[in-house]
Specification:
This protein has about 325 residues and is α/β, with parallel strands linked by helices. Helix content is about 45%, strand content about 15%. The chain has 14 helices and 13 strands. The longest helix is centred in the N-terminal third of the chain and has 22 residues.
Length: about 325
């Protein structure tokens, strides 16, 4: 009799689980996330995926595409969301793919994303270089010449990321076309060369952003310094923005925010997911720390999944709160 009672209890519990799973708002719905080919974006993407799974959604592994392809795919309904919408850096791509009429964007996922130009501290102090337009001087530009063409070599931005358009625009605006070359290509490979040059004691000039591992290897203030720009100058949708900070410094880029952007029609049909997207927040320091762990060798799929699991465990109450509010929004 005891075995029968235990079996009955087990079956009852199983049925309850199945009923509750069937009641979840995402049951039977497949979600397709997209991100860029920057593997460090996987952490913040998978964190959203985990929360969606708690709502019953079946979430595919993120597809890696160029940003502009990601936006057009989401707008067309071929993909569901991206967790790496930079504002205002991606404003031109966002608008070109349909803007607010095609996308759902509410809340701020990550705050305080900075970008700009840096040089090694040793060269900055020796030659008193504080502003990028000082490189109009051929003698100063030649310090950063890596291929003996007499021009400074700027380790720049991969085409299609959005930052390349800003850098190309600013090189012209600051009258640097004759003295600075914007090297574009595989950013990680170019930065590896740049870091090697730094370790060899040679001058370096590069663009980077936060959150990313580069600033954990080349630490601003210790190894390198940010360069200011002479005035605010941005292309396209950003053209009227002032990049000067409250402290008077101007590094040429506004401090960006990152957002979760979803297909608008899909979000309207899925209020639980929409509420989740609007509420989720991730501290930039946590993204930096995870990216640094990847650069230190913990970069496999299993490693990144472990980082996501670890973050959720360390912030369980907050994570559960997002899921609870999302479930309430579905009713």
């Amino acid at each position: 009799m005891r075995k029968i009672a235990l079996l009955t209890a087990a079956l009852t519990s199983l049925a309850a689980i199945q009923v509750s799973a069937a009641d979840l708002p995402g049951t039977g719905i497949t979600v397709k996330p997209v991100q860029s080919t920057i593997t460090e974006e996987t952490f913040q993407t998978l964190l959203v995926s985990r929360a969606l799974e708690k709502l019953g959604y079946t979430v595919e592994a993120p597809s890696e595409v160029d940003y502009n392809v990601g936006y057009t795919s989401i707008a067309a309904g071929d993909a569901t969301f991206t967790a790496v919408n930079w504002q205002p850096l991606h404003d031109d791509m966002y608008k070109a793919a349909g803007g607010d009429s095609k996308f759902y964007r509410a809340g701020t996922y990550v705050e305080g994303a900075a970008q700009g130009y840096l040089i090694d501290k040793k060269t900055a102090e020796k030659y008193h270089i504080t502003h990028i337009d000082q490189l109009k001087d051929p003698k100063l530009a030649k310090l950063f010449d890596t291929n003996n063409d007499g021009k400074a070599d700027l380790t720049g931005c991969t085409p299609g990321w959005g930052c390349e358009a800003v850098i190309n625009h600013q090189i012209k605006a600051f009258d640097l076309s004759n003295s600075v070359v914007h090297n574009q290509g595989n950013y990680a490979a170019m930065m590896a060369d740049t870091i090697t040059r730094f370790k060899e004691g040679k001058p370096i000039l590069y663009y980077t952003w936060t959150p990313y591992w580069v600033s954990d290897v080349l630490v601003p203030g210790k190894d390198v310094v940010w360069l200011q720009v002479p005035f605010s100058s941005l292309p396209g949708e950003q053209k009227d923005l002032d990049t000067k900070l409250p402290n008077g410094m101007n590094y040429g880029f506004t401090v960006n925010t990152m957002h979760i952007v979803a297909n608008k029609a899909w979000a309207e049909k899925n209020p639980a997911a929409a509420k989740l997207f609007a509420e989720m927040k991730l501290p930039i320091a946590d993204v930096n720390a995870q990216n640094a762990r990847m650069h230190a060798g913990q970069a496999s799929e299993a490693d990144i999944n472990a980082h996501v699991d670890g973050w959720i465990k360390a912030h369980q109450a907050q994570f559960d709160g997002w899921v609870k509010d999302a479930l309430a929004a579905a009713k």
